[in-house]
Amino acid sequence: MDKKKTNTFTRSILILFSGSILAQIIVLATSPILTRLFTVEEIGIYTFVLSFCSIFMAVINGRYDVPIVTEEREEYVFPLIKLALIIALFLSIVVTLIYAIYITWISPMYKEYIYTIVIVYLLLVSYGVLNILTAYNNRKKDYKIITAVYVVRTFFQNFGAVGLGFFKLGVVGLLLPYTVGQLMGIRRQGKPLFAHYKSILGSSKKNIMYVLKKHSKQPLYSAPAILANSLSYSSIVIFIDILYNMSTVGYYSISVRILGLPLALISGNVAKVFLEEASREFNATNQFYKSLKKTVVFQFSLAIPMVAFMMLFSPWLFGLFFGEQWKVAGEYVVYLAPMFGIRFIVSAISPGLVIANKQQLELLMQFIFIVASTISFLLAHTLHFSIEEFLISISIAFSIAYLLFFIAVFRYSKTNMKI
Questions:
Q1: pTM for the predicted model, two decimal places
Q2: What mean pLDDT do residues 253-261 have?
Q3: Domain ranges within the chain, ordered by starting residue
């Protein structure tokens, strides 16, 4: 039985992994073209807009998309979907208003990009819908669908930007294909669920209120925790803009884009499989140590050589691959690689505290990341850090935070363990 479960785990990862490989090949193939078609500042603005949206991407459904995967009783899945959709539509409006206030009043230097308000709203709504569809696909183990649509979206977003780049449309040439690309594959991904649209829309108020209360820890603890984590990373882009300039944001964005490839390629997919496998193990045995151990060993075996390679060769490869001026971004990778290596491992098991129903602790742990980024910013601002010193402080602070998170998940993966 254990061998069969291991084979299923491996097969699921390989399905998701294969699609991610194709998607990241597309990213790698188009990146050196994009860095030559768009200026550093244009890429910086593009990163700024996406960073703002990414703060709310994972919480736009109030985290009620997570129990779509883990809910034991099938009759409560559709009420969860309806609830998650309603919350997404409402929060998209609220967040878009916040963004509009920021670029018109707080930071009026970006008024020339007023059109991005519409783009932000469309992206937030698309994130909400895609979170629901992906969760339902995950519940049904439709990993092939998840993989296929991910490749389609990545292809359209990146090659679309390349095509528009030749017309010198600036930031529009980056944001437009990314936004439209979010809609690619929705019909295919939603096909298993669209057949039940009457059941979803017809979900009673009573059942919606039941799942709202049953999974109330999601918006109360898990959502703020994920928001804190997203804010801690996206705020770095804002801090760099405040401390330095938008061109530095552009260099930073490319370095993080490459560092994020293993996270998107491997960790994100492993986390999906870990959530499903560990949930089943926890429901059956009240622990998920076996799933955790298997996942950590797998991730660790990849993290060591990956980090070593990036620290040794990134500056040279960035200059060769993206153009000589982008060698600076490769130097940023050297400072950030150790932290991303630890993140690579921990992000794969990050759903662990949700599975163990310890959302309060997750909120506390994620709050540490905001503290880490804020302290680094204040130190950089007070002591006039160079960008290199700022990135080193971020790497050290975040590494410590991830190690604390790992310890918490590890101890709660075993029955009757307490912190």
A1: 0.80
A2: 91
A3: 19-214, 216-419
